[in-house]
Amino acid sequence: MQPKISIILSTYNEGYIIEETLKSIFANLTDVEVVIVDDSSTDGTCDKIKKFNDPRVKLFSRQSRGLASAFLLGLINTKGDIVGWFDSNMPELFKKTPQMISTLDKSDLALLSRYVPGGNDQRSKLRVLSSKTINLVCRMILGSGIKDYTSSVFLMKREKLAMAVPICYGHGEFFIEFLFKLKKNGIKITEIPYTHPQDHEGMSKTATNMIRFFKLGFDYMVRILISRIRKN
Q1: Burial grade of 100 (CB within 10 A; 0-12, 13-18, 19 or more)
Q2: Extended beta strands in the chain, E state
Q3: What is the mean pLDDT of residues 135-151?
Q4: 20 to 30 A from 49, CA-CA: which of 60, 142, 183, 198?
Q5: pLDDT tens across 11-33, in order?
Q6: How many domains does the chain have?
Q7: For the whole model, what pTM was predicted?
Q8: How far apart are the C-alpha atoms of 57 and 47, rounded to whole Å?
Q9: Is the predicted pLDDT of residue 203 greater than 60, yes or no?
Q10: What is the DSSP letter of 154?
Q11: What is the domain extent for residue 68?
């Protein structure tokens, strides 16, 4: 039987929390499959997923790393009428999924947002500042119709993917272009407030030091400009 909902998770050394995340998914959603793409975890993440031993979980383990390409691999292996992407280390967010699904009666995509009334961000001051700065630039260049371009936590109707195929290179900056193209092509997006919890591990796993942190910020800025000038 084809699942109604497909959840994509990208993992890298999430062994400390992946079982809790899977339990939260199945506690809050029925008729669901979980497609996990693991990027060479060294902490036993894949072993814990296999030990979970649930036929609704598909695991793809690869040697390369890259958030955008992991999302694409996950996406092409989903079967649900509704597809979504969540952070694998924030199991509490799945409590929001019933509300997200209910909004799809009138919208095409439900996006969790820190920058609509009721939203918040409890991460480090540096990460909050960088996120707010990037989103301010996004709204200035791409339009103010979306408040949180960098959330990347969403559920959407599968049929609407034809309106904007994600161009999956780089890190999370690809999601900015994806959202912009969807909005430009008439997809109705509803933003639902959520609170981003405190960092579990300090700096991002991608931006492991300040040099990489600022390089990643530069990559985001370049992608915003490319998104604005690229034709569909």
Answers
A1: buried
A2: 5-11, 32-39, 57-62, 82-87, 109-113, 120-121, 154-157, 189-193, 195-196
A3: 95
A4: 198
A5: 999 999 999 999 999 999 999 99
A6: 1
A7: 0.91
A8: 13
A9: no
A10: E
A11: 5-229
